[in-house]
Amino acid sequence: MRHVPFFRWVLAHGLVLIGGSLGLYTATPDSSELLRIDLIVVEEEPDGRCAVRWESLFDRDRLEAPYPCHA
After folding, report:
1. CA of 32: how far to CAs of 7, 35, 62, 70, in Å?
2. What is the pLDDT of residue 19?
3. Which of 1, 19, 50, 58 could join 69 via S-S bond, C-beta 3.0 to 4.6 A?
4. 53: burial class by Cβ within 10 Å (0-12, 13-18, 19+)?
5. Quick check: 66 and 43 in contact, CB under 8 A?
6. Coil, strand or helix: which one is 68?
7. Distance, CA of 46 to CA of 51 (rounded, Å)
């Protein structure tokens, strides 16, 4: 009965898969660029408080909320 180097093949395939996943990870753009939200200042107070508006990423609703701005 001949010995088959099974674990060497598993290791070789694992290294190929890890190398391929690292190559795809470095080739894709940064996810922070894809999930960027643009805030629009609607109202600004002299004490540094603002009201901002943005569009939701998931359901495309326009939302408005208070936000701390620089005075």
Report:
1. 39, 5, 20, 24
2. 97
3. 50
4. middle
5. no
6. strand
7. 12
